[in-house]
From TrEMBL:
UniProt-listed PANTHER family: AMINOTRANSFERASE, AMINOTRANSFERASE CLASS-III
PROSITE patterns per the UniProt record, alphabetical: AA_TRANSFER_CLASS_3 (PS00600)
NCBIfam families reported in the protein's UniProt record: PRK05965.1
Protein name (Swiss-Prot/TrEMBL): Aspartate aminotransferase family protein
Length: 462
């Protein structure tokens, strides 16, 4: 499809993230060439709606000249400024101020990273430092949630609870613990919201007791679990977990790398539950993917404890590219765009998306539809009564992605037959309707897949 040289060059030299290398060598790369709004064009000229905003990050959509201008202006004036040695740059300082202004509660202190994984890594380092500063070094145990994703750094990947990130990597570490997910569609306690909240609270309480209440440093949760399959907790779940942590002097970290910047509606999903975490991580929508950047937002008491604990000593955590001025300039411009209409459009488009996807429930393969705002999932099953997933022989991740691609739609197809959606907030009604329509075409074609048909017959089509 593409010039052989590029395909061969890729095969020979480019290692792709989270890929089966052997499968990639066999199937080759699809080269993306350009993009505008919510539409991506590949190297052969094929146009597709990007229903996943890159990797749930291009929240503003592609091709905003004002973002390009902001980056170019900053590159011309000052392409790099270290934040070491007491130095700084105007855009980074301003962006920190803007984020602190808008973040929930007293999350007034901002540590800029390069993305989400190092933001998580940064929280782990700061949390250890915090407990040491409080004279409680034994508080060194961390808890997160099954199906959670907290990045791919050596330690963060141990908080992540997806098997591929552990197998063969010697993870998780013995100080990293998990509680079951709230996953309403497949929760052993059923889908009653209060029952799910109670079960999660009981699981956290039990985990804390097993570890020893005086040993637990922090609990990590995504307001909506993204990479685990877009798992939306019942309303009140995040608040209940936050309150439990407060009562037990456990730091609560909200990982908003996906949910931040309009993905679920507001700038921060935590504000939908009216909670203030001790630390909040973000990335992706912060710069809308135009350049890399992440951030850790820290509450007053965490910052003060660390500052007091360190006294005159340097807190030894930093990156060459911390608070990068070009990324910060992009962040400032992106924030302006969010607040001059994009967030509002995202709310409208998100409601239409959810309504459209709900309309797919009548399809024989659709077991569940869930989401909030511009973050959604459709879970496929071959047996609606027993919720039997698509068989592995049907290669859901690859074949469904390929079918959607042929239909002019990029979605995320998870290996267990869950389809993930995170379109840019700029989507028009027509584009949202096309996402839904192309999904239905993709589902109809999946119904014809011989491996799916076999599994459907085995389940007698319930
Ligand atoms: N945390 C969450 C919730 C994420 O979804 C991701 C990435 O998808 C990360 C952390 C890691 O971010 P990055 O890929 O920018 O390192």
């Amino acid at each position: 499809m593409y010039s052989n040289s590029l395909t061969e060059l890729d095969r020979a030299h480019l290692i792709h993230p989270v890929a089966s290398y052997r499968s990639h060598e066999k199937h080759g790369v699809r080269v993306l060439a350009s993009a505008k709004g919510a539409t991506v064009t590949d190297a052969s000229g094929k146009q597709l709606i990007d229903g996943f905003a890159g990797l749930w990050c291009v929240n503003a959509g592609y091709g905003h000249e004002s973002i390009v201008e902001a980056a170019a202006r900053q590159m011309r004036e000052l392409p790099y400024a270290t934040a070491y040695f007491g130095l700084g740059s105007e855009p980074a300082i301003r962006l920190a101020g803007e984020l602190a202004d808008r973040a929930p509660g007293d999350l007034n202190h901002v540590y800029f990273t390069l993305g989400g994984s190092d933001a998580i890594d940064t929280t782990i380092r700061f949390i250890r430092y915090y407990w040491n500063a409080r004279g409680r070094p034994e508080r060194d145990q961390f808890i997160s949630v099954e199906q959670g994703y907290h990045g791919s750094s050596t330690v963060g990947a141990g908080l992540t609870a997806l098997p591929a990130f552990h197998a063969g990597f010697g993870l998780p570490f013995d100080w990293q613990h998990k509680i079951p997910s709230h996953y309403a569609y497949r929760n052993p306690v059923g889908d009653d919201p209060q029952a799910i909240i109670d079960a999660s609270l009981a699981a956290l309480k039990s985990k804390v007791e097993t570890i020893g209440p005086e040993r637990v440093a922090a609990f990590y949760a995504e307001p909506i679990q993204g990479s685990g399959g877009v798992l939306v907790p019942p309303k009140g779940w995040v608040k209940a977990m936050r309150e439990f942590c407060r009562e037990h002097d456990i730091l609560f970290v909200a990982d908003e790398v996906i949910t931040g910047f309009g993905r679920t509606g507001p700038l921060f999903a935590c504000s939908e539950e009216g909670i203030v975490p001790d630390l909040l991580t973000t990335a992706k929508g912060l710069t809308s993917g135009y350049v890399p950047m992440g951030a850790v937002l820290m509450s007053d008491h965490v910052y003060e404890t660390i500052a007091e604990g360190a006294g005159a000593a340097a807190v030894g955590h930093g990156y060459t590219y911390s608070a990068h001025p070009v990324s910060a300039a992009v962040g400032l411009e992106v924030l302006k765009l969010y607040e001059s209409g994009l967030l509002d459009n995202g709310v409208r488009a998100g409601a239409r998306l959810m309504e459209g996807l709900e309309g797919l429930r009548d399809h024989p393969l659709v077991g569940d539809v869930r989401g909030r705002g511009m973050l959604a999932a459709v879970e496929l099953v071959v047996d609606k009564v027993n919720k039997t997933p698509l068989p592995a022989s049907a290669e859901p991740a690859r074949r469904i992605f390929d079918r959607a691609w042929e239909n002019g739609l990029i979605i995320r197809a998870f290996g267990n037959g869950v389809l993930g959606y995170a379109p840019p907030l700029c989507c028009t009604e027509t584009e949202i309707d096309a996402i839904v329509e192309r999904t239905r075409m993709t589902l109809d074609e999946t119904l014809e897949d011989p491996d799916v048909r076999r599994a459907l017959r085995a389940g007698e089509y319930r």
